[in-house]
Amino acid sequence: MNLTNIDIAIILCYIIVTIFLGFYVSKKASKSIKSYFLGGNEIPWYYLGLSNASGMFDISGTMWAVTAMFVYGLKSAWLPWIWPVWNQVFIMIFLAAWLRRSNAMTGAQWITYRFGTDMGAKLSHIIVTVFAVISTLGFIAYFFEGIGKFATIFFPWDLSFHLGILNISSEQAYALIIISITTLYTLKGGMYSVVGTEVIQFVIMTISCIVIGYIAFTTVTADQILAATPQGWDHLFFGKHLDLDWTGYIDHVNIKIEEDGFSLFGFLFMMMIFKGIFASLAGPVPSYDMQRVLSTKNEVEASKMSGLTIVVLSIPRYLMITGFAVLGLVYLGPELQQSGTQIDFETILPLAIQRFVPIGFKGLLLAGLLAAFMGTFAAFINAAPAYIVNDIYKKYIKPEASNKTYIRFSYISSISIVAIGLIFGFFASSINTLTLWLTSALYGGYAAANVLKWIWWRFNAYGYFGGMLAGLFAATLVPSYFPDIPDIYLFPLILLISFIGCFLGIVLGKPDDIEVLKNFYKTTKPWGFWKPVYEKLKEEDPTFSANTDFARDMMNCVIGIIWQMTFVLSPIYLIVKDYYSLAIVLFLMVVTSIILKYTWYNRLKK
Fold first, then answer.
1. Can you tell me the mean pLDDT for 260-280?
2. How far is 263 from 248, CA to CA, in rounded Å?
3. Which residues pair with 168 in a beta bridge?
């Protein structure tokens, strides 16, 4: 497809502004590693919230979500629970405050705050740094796969070339160029650059989403959607089986459902709930989401930031996702059926843009989607080097080096991580495969140790190290033994192996230093099984009180999940023109918002 000069000019202007901003804030970012990685804890919570939302609005995830909506219909609204998307509710309700009270710079530095500085703590410190780097490498491969597929449909130039024994496809060449530009501005500006550009990116994306939603709403009727989809596509709820038969509509979709392994939708839903509870209680993984929490000014702003992320992300994003899905179904569906060839469903989003978006808006939308990719990628590239620099280089190699040295080493770390992640990307099979591995296998190995660290005083540093190590091995090896089983169904086995590693560490290692435990419990104030530590603190300070908010927090989490789901469903029902369901969802949105106002928001400062 040949873009018009207007579209190309919009895209180029966006890229130039982004790079300029990165260089503009580089002087402020280079004051210290705290300024570089956390923005000096000076950035207002609402900017961080918009930045966090922009970081979650990645292009690969959007392509996956459009495909899911296209194939599974309204039931696809549940599929992001694989991550689980509602972990943001747990962070908003209580985990953001718990995490921010540590005043740590990274998740690995938090380990010292929780477990101390003995050998077990050092091993735990190293293993969480390894996890952060591995997860970042996986996400780089995920981004590489998505942006390459996206770019080749829009840009007409064949950039394929040979590099020794390597044959670089045009898809891979475009990905390399875009990733290089993103890495450049992220290196220069650190967290200031990431947040500043992501706020701009969020504005562009929101405008783009509204435009796509308007086009879909005004050009597609409810009757056209019903005619283009099988019975049950427009139903949110489900039974044991998916019961979607695409025969006669787009026959190859049935093959896609079989390959995904989602036909037993009821069982899949139970697995998502089971995994979601553990993954959400574990807290944010050591990536950009955790870094945003640690970058806030205080625990109240950390909680507000996480709440804002939920509000501003879902509605515009699902306007775009649903808009593109229904446009593709109505106008591309017949062509896909007649072609009779194997379909790459992950290209539905760029194909829909190519066909349905007018000149000018196309450039704006492409700039917005490019912004979504760059924002998410930049967030990871800023987060991972913080672990290498702060938690390895500064802690064990050069603790007295200058800020200039640390920032220079951060540049080297970022470039190295990007290079290795790109190598992984060359061997990735699909966005869906990477999505399921990241969300189900890798995070399955993370959940056990990171739930226990909050709630049990006897969970020691060796238990953390054992659980994380066992989880990493399980996440890597278990899927290879069951290649035909989707990774989400392997989550219980990976979790079990990780729990075994945790308890072996507890049994073989001694309890952590009571002074470290007292400091952690007194400052963090988690609920859970802390009676021996609580009694020690009570002896020293009779006025000290335990956290008794478990029931309220869990109630708020349930209400919060319903509240979050209303932001997802309202734009979907609007685009498919199911106004009766839309009215119910809006009513639930108002009711849950009022409840959370009194049971969560009003209690923040208390």
1. 87
2. 18
3. 161
Q: Which residues pair with 529 in a beta bridge?
A: 456
Cβ contacts of 101 within 8 Å, gap of 6 or more? 299, 523, 524, 525
Backbone angles phi, psi at 168, to 5 degrees: -90, 115
Amino acid occupying residue 604: L
Would you say 529 and 457 are in contact if contact means Cβ atoms under 8 Å apart? yes
**442 falls in which pLDDT band (50, 70, 90)?**
low
Distance between CA atoms of residues 27 and 30, nearest Å: 5
Please tell me the distance from the alpha carbon of residue 236 to that of residue 269, in angstroms, as a whole number. 13
Q: What domains lie within the chain, and their CATH numbers?
A: 5-428+548-603 (1.20.1730)
Burial label for 29, CB within 10 Å (0-12, 13-18, 19+), is buried
Largest CA distance in the chain: 77
* ∠ Cα 546 294 104 (to 5°): 75
d(CA 594, CA 588): 10
Distance CA 466, CA 476 (A): 16
Q: In a 3-state reduction of DSSP, which class is residue 161?
A: strand
- Stretch (H or E) spanning 167: strand 166-168
Cβ-defined contacts of 320-323 (< 8 Å, 24+): 320/62, 320/208, 320/209, 320/212, 320/213, 321/62, 321/65, 321/66, 321/69, 322/69, 322/213, 322/216, 322/571, 322/572, 322/575, 322/576, 323/209, 323/212, 323/213, 323/215, 323/216, 323/217, 323/575
Eight-class DSSP state of 542: T
Instruction: Encode burial over 125-162: b for 16+ CB neighbours within 10 A, e otherwise.
Output: bbbbbbbbbbbbbbbbbbbbbbbbbbbbebbeeebeee
Q: What is the pLDDT of residues 286-326, one digit of tens each?
A: 666 677 888 898 999 999 999 999 988 889 999 999 998 99
**What was the pLDDT predicted at 192?**
59
Note the pLDDT tens digit of each residue in 520-552: 999 999 999 999 999 999 999 999 999 999 999
Asked whether residue 1 carries a pLDDT value surpassing 60, the answer given is no
| Dihedral Cα 21, 22, 23, 24, nearest 10 deg | 40
Residues 138 and 421: their CA atoms lie apart, in Å, by 7
Neighbours of 364 (CB within 10 A): 20
According to the 3-state scheme, what is the secondary structure of 16-27?
A: HHHHHHHHHCHH
Instruction: Quote the crossing angle between the two packed helices 45-56 and 170-219, to the nearest 10°.
Output: 100
